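Batch job 17 of 40 flagged for manual review because the log was empty.
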Amino acid sequence: MNKNKPYALICGTALLIGSFVLCVASPAFAQSFSSQDRDRGVTMLKLIKDDISKHYYDPAFHGIDLDTRFKLAEGKIKLTKSNAEVFGVIAQVLLDFNDSHTAFIPPQRQSVIEYGWLMKMFGDTGYITEVRPHSDADVQGLKPGDQVLSIDGIRPTRTNSWIFYYLYYRLAPRPVVKLVVQSPAEPARPLEVKAKVQMNKRTIDLTDTIDLNKYEREGDDDELMSAHRFSAFGDQLIIWKMPEFNLTRDEVDVQIDRVKKHRALILDLRGNLGGLEETLLRLIGNLCDHDVTVGELKRRKESKPLIAKTRGEGGFKGKLVVLVDSESASASEVLARVVQLEKRGVVLGDRTSGKVMRSRVYPHQMGVDTVILYGASITDADIIMSDGVSLEGAGVTPNMVLLPAATNVRAHQDPVLAGAAELLGVKLDAGEAGKLFPFKWQALNR
C-alpha cells in the first residue's frame, strides 16, 4: 500500500539476488562498463542508505547494522563487471530487510524484454496463464495450463515466484529462459524459450517529450494500466474488475454510484497489487455503513489508527463477494481482511501474497537534462489489523478457497468467478466467465 502514489512492486522474501545475478546474467546483454559505472553504483547505494536511515519505519532496521551492511555492499560494487551485477548488489542489500515494500528500483535498462509468456501461482503450483501469439514460446508449443516445474533450474513456489519478475524484467533480463513444463496428462518436457529484445537508450533526455512519455509508459504493467471494468447481470449483480487502487475519493464514489444500482457486487481483486491508501479507505467507507478502524499504523516514532469514514446512506448496501488470488497484495489484502473482520461479505479464491506494509517511493536521478532515473521503495509503516495481527508474510486466507484446475487455465475458463456468481444467485458458466475480462498483451515496439 502506497500513501503518496500507486506503485506496483513484486518483492518479498530476501533471497540471494546478487549471487543469482552474478551466476546467470547473460553475456548477450553485455554493455560497455567502466569505473564510472561502478562510481555511479556507489552513489546510488549511498543515497538509498540515506533514504532508509531517514524514513524506514523500524528504528532497529530489522536488526541490520546499516553502516556495516552498506560498507560491505560498497566493497562488492567495486568488484563488479557489469551494471547487472551492480544492481544485484544494491537490490540484495534492501531485500535483506525481508520486507515486501522495501526494494531497489533500478534505472531503465538499455534493453526492453518481452518473454512471450506469463505464469501465476495457484495454490502451490505455477501454471502458464498466457502465451503471446507468434512468440517463440508459441512456436515451441507452450500453452496456458502448462505446469511450470522449473525456470532456469529453480522450481517456482509461492515464496520465490516474485523473484523471476524482479530479476528477469528489472535487474537482469536474458534472451533465453530454460523451462521445464508439463501439460495435463503428459510427460514433462524441457524448453529453451527465446525472448524478444529491443534496444533502447540507456539514458533519457527529459527535454525530449517523446523520451519522457516512453519511459513513463514502459514503467507500467499493462494489466495495471487497464481501466476498471464492469459486467452487469440486470439489476441482480455487477462485477467490478479492479486492476489497481488508483482512484480519487470522488472517483470511488462515482463507481459506487454505478454499483449500488445492483443488489450484489463481486469485487474482483485478483492480480491487484495495491495502490493508494486514499482509494482503499474511501472504498471501505462505501462498503460499510459505519466508520471502520482498519488497524494501527506503526511508524518509527508514532502509532496512529487507520480509519475509514463511512459514506453512510450513499454507500453500497447489497451483498458482497471479494475475489483474491496469490497476486493480490497490499491494499487488496487489507480490504479483503476488513470484509472478513466486519462480516461484510465473503472472500473467495486463493490465499493472498502477504505483502502488506505502507511505503513511499523515493526517486533519484543522475544528470540534469539527460538523466538516469532510479529510486527506492521504503516502508514507512507496518499495518496491524483491528484483530491485532499483521498480514505481512501471512496474507489473507479466503472464507472459501476455490482454485482453477490446469484444464480450466488451458481453456481460459474462470470457475472462481462463476462460483462467486452462483453464491449470489446468478448462473454463470465458467467458460463465459472467462470471456468477461479478456487479457490483452501490451503492444511491442512501443
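Reviewer: the log was empty due to a logging misconfiguration, but the result itself is present. Residues 4-28, 202-224 have pLDDT under 50 and may be disordered. Unflagging and moving on to job 18.
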